[in-house]
């Protein structure tokens, strides 16, 4: 969830384990990532959707929140809350994170085209 602090969550987990009689369970954080959520109304999101539609020939599908980890927070917060988007380079049966994960060549090419269009359209905004 947006605005969660992983250090706070770790403390809450420790407290919960302790109150449930699991004081002997040791916790060790090997790294932390802070959640980020960009408003779907942000103009940069609209630009990304528009360029995706140009490349793929159909409306973009926005997924406002997904589980998992990514380095998005490393850009968003330190750089003043800039919007960060991800142009998906995949298809429904890519078997993400499985031993046979893969990407089709055309999906890779379209992903590169989408990213290039995002950059070109973003550059036009400053002219």
**Overall pLDDT, averaged?**
90
Number of helices: 4
User: Pairing-aware structural class of the strands and helices?
Assistant: mainly alpha
Alpha-carbon distance between the termini?
A: 36 Å
What name does the CATH topology of the largest domain carry? DNA polymerase, domain 1
Computed Rg: 19 Å
Keywords summarizing the entry:
127 residues; mainly alpha; DNA polymerase, domain 1; 2 domains; 43% helix; extended
Topology:
Blueprint: H1 6-19, H2 43-56, H3 72-76, H4 105-125
Helix pairs in contact: 2-4
What does this entry look like structurally?
- This protein has 127 residues and is an all-alpha fold.
- It folds into two domains: 1-32, no CATH class; 36-125, DNA polymerase, domain 1 (Orthogonal Bundle).
- The protein has four helices and no strands.
- It has helices at 6-19, 43-56, 72-76, 105-125.
- α2 (43-56) packs across α4.
- The chain is extended, with a radius of gyration of 19 Å.
- The relative contact order is 0.13.
- The mean pLDDT is 90.
Briefly summarize what is shown:
The chain starts with 5 loop residues before the first helix and ends with a helix. Helix 2 (43-56) packs across helix 4.
